[in-house]
């Protein structure tokens, strides 16, 4: 494939400046290593009488080559510390996918540590397209896209699926996609995560020139800022499962970030453009049955009659449906037994599926509640007064908690932001309600 027009015109525009400043012999070594230049081509250039003549010949050759050669030339400028020259070429950097097609997508995602699809995967096209639409807004400028929702709603799978798209990577993130699993972290653990990301990014550029690991959060932040701006321009960093705004601030480095979280308000603490996608609605019945069918290797219409009841009891949670599906895969004669367990809220007996990070639904729920301040945690547990499918205004809880209505609204907003409560904002005053799974969990814990 020929060189993209934007890259070609960029080379022509800055040709004189490049000819004046570069030392071709250093750059050609890298380009031969990348397989975009032959030894014969290098030899022809070396025979030119002056360094400037050699530079002109190298640029002439580059104009006849493809996108891969341009990217290799750009990377060789970075490696040889021609940062000012690399900056000139950065905006028109072609996509690494231009020659790779769909296999190129898989390569980019694998190199960036993006998880593969779970063994049992059910597509949710409407949500995936909403996330992609937000990611396209990061094409020109840095910013944040937040996927938020309650425990087990499938946020991580959704994030990975959204970037599994040739056009999106080619147009918006030619610098690649880089995934970092976060979770609940103390500062020393956060530093280790950032060190490992720096190592991964630097190693893929040139394993011979690895720097020592950054030894503080500030140093790690600056190292990542440099790497993302200079060496991985127009790339996307995915931060999976963020709990704490202090963690997010460590990545406030003016780059493009997609994050998954249960706490919708986390990005209030950082700068830049912000977009969000809520994963508040669960799976519909047909998707739930599809998951059970895939696990048990049956056709949806061939599932036993208990299947529909199991999906209903799972309240649309991809996590719980998958937990049950994984169990039925090993014990296909236990449909009635697991339905009874769900009806009796015996979550502790439902063991984890290897596709998920949490041992069972109750642990996922408990982790969400644990991050609340002590006094709010007790108030949250009072929400067992709510009944299923009943929505109430803040005034009711104001009476129960003996607090001013405005204070109650602020507390409820905190619960909503952390995906622990839902709000119906179509009514005035707002009405609040729990997902059935959250209510079941609170009743069981009481």
From TrEMBL:
Q: One of this protein's GO BP terms?
A: regulation of apoptotic process
One GO cellular component this record assigns the protein to is:
cytosol
Report domain CARD positions: 3-92
The record's section on InterPro entries has: Apaf_helical, CARD, DEATH-like_dom_sf, NB-ARC, P-loop_NTPase, WH-like_DNA-bd_sf, WHD_APAF1
Molecular functions (GO terms)? ADP binding
Which keywords annotate this record?
Answer: Apoptosis, Repeat
UniProt keyword annotation of Repeat present: yes
User: What Pfam families does this protein map onto?
Assistant: CARD, NB-ARC, WHD_APAF1
This protein's name: Apoptotic peptidase activating factor 1
